[in-house]
Specification:
Blueprint lengths: L1 H22 L2 E6 L7 H14 L5 E6 L4 H10 L4 E5 H9 L11 E17 L14 E3 L6 H10 L10 E3 L3 H9 L5 E6 L4 H9 L2 E3 L4 H10 L4 E5 L11 E13 L4 H12 L2 H7 L21 H9 L5
Parallel strand pairs: 1-2, 1-3, 5-6, 5-7
Antiparallel strand pairs: 3-10, 4-7, 4-8, 4-10, 9-10
């Protein structure tokens, strides 16, 4: 009886300690993206890893948002602690370049995550085969102020387009896919990782035209925006897509507010890269995240805590 009481007491103490440990966890919010995009499920996977593999240091809650543009503002204002966003959006917003009217410079980098490809898709009925053919057409450019929409503003002009020459439709990915399938749109632009579930769904239901971004115009865009890279969506990423599609890519990256403590930012970086396998099990994009490429395309300052970890690993000097 005495032994049983001792075991019960020990068990209750362990439970109390575990409860207190969980209660002591720093509660953080991670801004992700729309529920039909990549950021939301990937952010959930990263949040889970940070919550379960940080030794009880963090309890991270993912939050659906309008993606990159909104995430940059939320992080700058301190309304969220962590966010996923595009490197080009981070660069422009940090410097206060168009379309941003002020510098959103309270944001610091943790690491680059993976490449995001510009997908330009048109209905076959629209007869669009090149970007300039979109003149006079209804084109979804993404949620207003998102990184997706910023990209459209950046590259349209190189193809003789602007919002006066097309009918811009400002929709997130899920609503874009629905309207495209209903033939309410002639085309759309997604800046997103592959494979994208919404595009997979579209291409299994109907034939589409993937519009290439290459040639002289692509060269000029890369020269004007060095964080963009000439790239290609791999063959057979989507149904009835036997060949690679020439396009451009930017990089998804993880950022935090600059006021996060150095120790917290260090632990976030360490926990992420030492548990990438767990992220990959939860979402296939995790397999594209690597310590070796953690600094690729990052043009805003690293958080000192993240920089400490990356220096220890020889990634940055």
């Amino acid at each position: 009886m005495k032994r049983m009481m001792t075991l019960l007491l020990a068990g209750s103490l362990l439970l109390a300690a575990a409860t207190a440990f969980a209660a002591d966890a720093k509660r953080l919010t991670m801004a992700t993206g729309g529920t039909s995009g990549v950021y939301y499920p990937l952010g959930g996977a990263i949040s889970q890893v940070l919550s379960t593999k940080s030794g009880g240091a963090f309890a991270v809650t993912p939050q659906a948002t309008g993606a990159s543009g909104e995430n940059m503002r939320l992080t700058h204002l301190g309304d969220v602690d962590i966010a996923i966003l595009q490197n080009d959006v981070a660069d422009a917003a940090f410097k206060g370049l168009a379309p941003y009217k002020q510098e959103l410079n309270n944001v610091r980098a943790i690491a680059r995550l993976y490449p995001e490809y510009l997908h330009v898709v048109a209905t076959q009925e629209s007869k669009v085969t090149k970007l300039s053919d979109f003149k006079g057409k209804k084109v979804s450019v993404g949620a207003r102020g998102s990184g997706n929409e910023v990209n459209c503003r950046q590259f349209f002009e190189f193809y003789g387009l602007d919002y006066k020459k097309i009918e811009p439709i400002f929709l997130p990915y899920g609503e874009t896919a629905d309207q495209f399938k209903d033939r309410a749109l002639d085309g759309f632009v997604f800046t997103i990782g592959t494979p994208n579930p919404a595009i997979q769904d579209i291409t299994t239901a109907q034939k589409v035209t993937f519009v290439p971004m290459d040639g002289e115009e692509a060269d000029k865009i890369v020269k004007a925006f060095p964080y963009m890279v000439k790239d290609a969506i791999p063959a057979n990423t989507y149904a009835d897509q036997p060949k690679p599609i020439p396009t451009l890519s930017v990089q998804a990256m993880l950022v935090v507010n600059k006021n996060m403590s150095d120790d917290e930012a260090y632990l976030i970086t360490k926990t992420l890269f030492e548990n990438i396998g767990d992220v990959a099990k939860a979402h296939n994009k995790g397999a594209e995240i690597s310590l070796e490429h953690a600094a690729d395309g990052v043009t805003i300052p690293f958080h000192p805590g993240a920089a400490r970890y990356l220096k220890e690993k020889g990634i940055i000097k």
